[in-house]
Amino acid sequence: MRKTILIIAIAGIFAACNNEKKEPATTTETQPKPAVALPYNPTYSTSFEMGNPAYTAMVVQGSWKDWEENKLDNMKNWVADTVKAFLSDNSAVMGRDSLMARWKRGRAGYSSVIDTLNAAMAVYSTDKKEDWVLIWATEINTNTAGKADTAQVMETWRINKDGKADMLFQHDRARRKQ
Prior knowledge:
By secondary structure, the protein is of the alpha+beta class. The chain is built from three helices and seven strands. It has one domain (48-172): Nuclear Transport Factor 2, Chain: A (Roll). It has helices at 2-16, 53-68, 96-108; strands at residues 48-50, 79-86, 92-94, 110-125, 130-143, 148-159, 165-172. A hairpin with a 4-residue loop joins strand 5 and strand 6 (148-159).
């Protein structure tokens, strides 16, 4: 029995001491992606890389979890005083206090909200030197009369140099008429 254990231990040591060099993987993840010609010239940028994941966590907590839990006063912690919000109903709201008031009025019309995050990521525009957070989510709102509606929502948040959200573009599908 001792000899068997000794042989297994020695084999394990030899396996761990293998100095053989491994060739790097040749997947598309390790090779640079070729540039492609787009049928339009983007007016903002085509130069993005992955951004700061802490910004993603900040926006998901603030714009989604705090909305769901009706804790909108927390916006003071992560939204810039000068925020510009272009909302999915084609309205624009300027300033944190105005956005907070608008969202509080809207949230008061719901007895419950259930949010499901489909995807979220931070990106950084290398040529514009700007951070953005992109969120795709599903939201189920139940109004005070008990009627539920589901929406697919996309939000694009810009993060300023102070690490606060200073711009929002929000889009959702049209509400169903019933």
